Amino acid sequence: MTMHSRRLARIAACSVLGLCAIHSVGASELPDWSGWWGQGDAPSRSFISNPPPLRKERLSQMVRRQPGEIGPGLYCGPATFTGFNGSFVVNFEFLFTPGRVTITNEGGMIRRIYTDGRPLPANPEPSSTGTSVGHWEGQTLVIETIGISPNAQLGRFGAIGKNARIVEHIRLKQKDILETEVETSAPEVFTATDRRSYLTGRVPGKHSPLEANFCSERDRSYDAKSGKERFDTTPPPNLPPPPAQ
Q: CA 93, CA 188: separation in Å to the nearest integer?
């Protein structure tokens, strides 16, 4: 039996028998990633110390944010995944269930990483966090994600664009330190695959998640074109006339 045939046989067994926990490690051997994570450097620090291979047109489009500017990254939209699960202000956690690892954070992001042996779909419907499949290589979780919405914001570099693909290798570097290696292929942003690594720490104690919400959706004091705050006195459309005196 070929390797491909064995893989198909495992997937068939998973579907028929409901045994959807296909790992290279047993469930009892999974690493201890309990609790919340995110006590590390801001993701932007990585881009400063290790500049990405930006396309020239993206570099010219980047504008340094001025005091008072909100910027499109804070204009309200769904929580998205473009390479980072959290940061020093947004913690995240892992939820292990048979055949799946779920990653969620305090900003409302939910990622479902299927580890039941299924392949990535050929043409997934674009979504805020994409479509992810994963597998275990020893104590390292390897995740491949495609189908990310082209409008998802990649920090100061703008929209991630079409045909983005992100590969993560997540492992415990030591007891309370998580190491994540990220490879991002985004043809509309980078001239080559962007590779970087970052560390996050386990949040001590029994952390109660907070809601990190910076939305300014429908806030008419924010000008999306200039990125600046304003006071808009324009009445809403279809406003009924004032009552007769």
A: 30
- C-alpha–C-alpha distance, residues 132 and 130, integer Å: 6
- Cα–Cα dist 121/35, whole Å: 31
Question: What is the average pLDDT across 183-206?
Answer: 94
Question: Which residue did the predictor score with more confidence, 206 or 165?
Answer: 165
* pTM over the 0.90 mark: no
- The answer to whether 43 touches 87, Cβ cutoff 8 Å, is yes
In 3D space, the residue among 49, 233, 80 whose CA is nearest the CA of residue 155 turns out to be: 80
67 pLDDT exceeds 70?
A: no
Structure tokens that stand for 68 in this block: 């008072």
Is-contact 211 48, C-beta < 8 A?
no
CA dihedral 58, 63, 64, 67 (to 10 degrees): -150
